[in-house]
Amino acid sequence: MSKKNSILSSNAFYTLISIVIGFIVGAILLSIAKINPLDAYKQLFNGVFGKPKFMVWCLIYAAPLIFTGLSVAFSFKTGVFNIGAEGQFVVGSLTACVLGILIKAPAIIHVPLCFIGAALAGGIWGAIVGVLKIKKGVNEVLSYIMFNWIAFYLSNFVVNLGIIHKDGGGEATKDIAETARILAPKSIIAATGASATNYGFILAIIFAVIVWFIINRTTLGFKLRAVGFSNTAAQYAGIDTGKSFLTAMAFSGALAGIGGAVQLMGMSGRISQFSGQEGYGFQGITVALIASSNPIACIFAGIFYGAMKYGGGKLSLVNAPAEVVDIIMGIIILFIAISSLFKNIFLNHGKKGAV
Amino acid sequence: MDVLIRNLGLLINAILIATPPLLLAALGSCFSERSGVVNIGIEGMMTIGAFIGACVAYFSGNGWLGFFAGGLSGAVLGVIHAIACIQFGADQTISGTAINFIGPGLAVFLCKAIFDNSSDSPALDTAAKLPKMFEGVFKSGSFGYNVFSTYSVAYLSFILVLVVWFVFYKTKFGMHLRAVGEHPQACATLGVNVYLTRYICVILSGFLAGLGGAFVTLATVSQFRPAVIVGQGFIAIAAVIFGKFKPQGAFKACLLFGLCNGIKALLGAGNAVSPNLVSMIPYVVTILALVFVVGSTRVPAANGKPFLKAR
């Protein structure tokens, strides 16, 4: 394959084009809204790179997104589309929150306990959908969507329970115990200047490597990928595809659940009653797509999304709506989704040129 | 007895207000799903419809104009989804996810751009909302008032069920759309234009979802807020699944889910039954339906599979 063709066949090339198109569409919309797109993008850029503190905040924002991104990427590799990461994230966060408030323990026990609880909750939430798929043939995309909303209302329900709810009004839970937080030591927080500096990002990198290792270097990963690649061929080769799907869906759910715990124990420290879905799971889909389902690339895609989220929040300084970030991200996904056809067109043209 | 009848009237009134947005969106979803294109972007299409509807009605003072404009804005997103899925063979769930980013994002973006950086649009005058029927005929608060003096669109949406049923089962187009959702290759061989049929269905699904969204802002809520739709698009999809992908089935499911929303609206906050638990019912019921009547809830065979013409 020529050098030109190898570029044209790489996913990264199309992802890059999609990102550029996303920003162009965003610029057009900003212009229509009578906002100078250059000003807005400069603000976005400064909001991310202006101070070291800002960059730390971007990594803090990135951590939960890397987890949901890994969750979705893992599911893609194993032939499932985990559109349920949203719900798994929510139940993970909720479980960590309940454990963080109700249990009294030293940090060395409390933190792992919350993480295990969150992973189990997310894993079970995903595994239920897996069981429905395998035993009853229920389309997983449909049941994932239903479970997302059940998780959403479950969280709002639990937030309002007496023993969890913050004393004296408000629409949030109590703060979780200090022993359940994963904040960095005070000296580091003082050095970075970002009040929520925590270990979430480091955990995310560790998990990205673990996921990469499982997928690429273990027998389990090989089996899961084989099923993802061709269900029937894997079955013929003697792999229990049902068990394989279930394992993949539970593991994918656990990753999203841990993401929920990271967000809670690192950043928010409590759960509020939400009027709409927070979207970490759906943002994870974007992260996985930008990363072409590569776990290591998920780290960078997560940082990209985290930066866009954090920087986007500062767009109000130039009177630009932060929602332009959602639109840019939507356009990026759309173009990544249709890029496979572009790929065929470009490569076919390449072949004709060679003849 | 009087109290009972009055309460029944109130409940029916709540159902009549809660059902139309779900029903309009669900009928749209039926078109798309039966023609073989999964559309989880219904939620995003409803949200843009809700905003454009409120915005056009606010500036024109005409509820019907707003309602129609809301539908058109949903149709525009439908066009995007259709081009991605039909022309480019994109993964339909991913394209729908993109629509769910773009629709609500665009709605709030435009709202802030037009209404001085506020994410809520100004409240609509009664004159700019959708009209109610039989005003002044019944005594305010009576059973008849609650049941009949309501938005005419509510009853129109029920009539639309009959129309859609007729289109689905008694017209050539309906037969084609059901067929291309089952076996597009065979249809293409027989000279049915698979692409055109699917385009019409997906754009129609966007239009109806947009109308559903516009009903929320033009009748129920009287203004646009970012959380005005929250989940109704997905309840509509759930209704279609629960209704076995048939318009008449989706209608029954929408009435049931509309009842849930109606109860929630009547109960309000701070009651014995948590509104959050009531909100869960449509989703739980749909899961149960998928599990226990799965044999009869058959997804259209070509659903989610792109059909690319042989070159």
Automatic annotation (TrEMBL), chain A:
Q: Which CDD domains match?
A: TM_PBP1_transp_TpRbsC_like (cd06580)
Major site of localization recorded for this protein = membrane
Q: Where in the cell is it found?
A: Cell membrane
- Molecular functions per Gene Ontology: transmembrane transporter activity
- What InterPro entries does the record tag this protein with? ABC_transp_permease (IPR001851)
Transmembrane residue ranges: 12-34, 54-76, 83-103, 109-132, 144-164, 196-215, 245-264, 285-307, 327-346
Give the matching Pfam families. BPD_transp_2
Topology in the lipid bilayer: Multi-pass membrane protein
Q: Does the keyword Cell membrane apply?
A: yes
Its recorded name reads ABC transporter permease
Species of origin reads Lachnoanaerobaculum gingivalis
From TrEMBL, chain B:
Gene Ontology terms, MF aspect? transmembrane transporter activity
Q: Which InterPro entries match?
A: ABC_transp_permease (IPR001851)
Provide the primary localization. membrane
State the annotated membrane topology for this chain.
Multi-pass membrane protein
Q: Membrane-crossing residues?
A: 12-31, 38-59, 65-86, 98-115, 148-168, 199-218, 224-242, 254-274, 280-301
The places in or outside the cell where this protein is found are: Cell membrane
Ordered alphabetically, the record's keywords are:
Cell membrane, Membrane, Transmembrane, Transmembrane helix
Q: Which PROSITE patterns match?
A: PROKAR_LIPOPROTEIN
Quick one: a GO cellular component term?
plasma membrane
**Annotated organism of origin:** Lachnoanaerobaculum gingivalis
Instruction: Report what the protein is called.
Output: ABC transporter permease
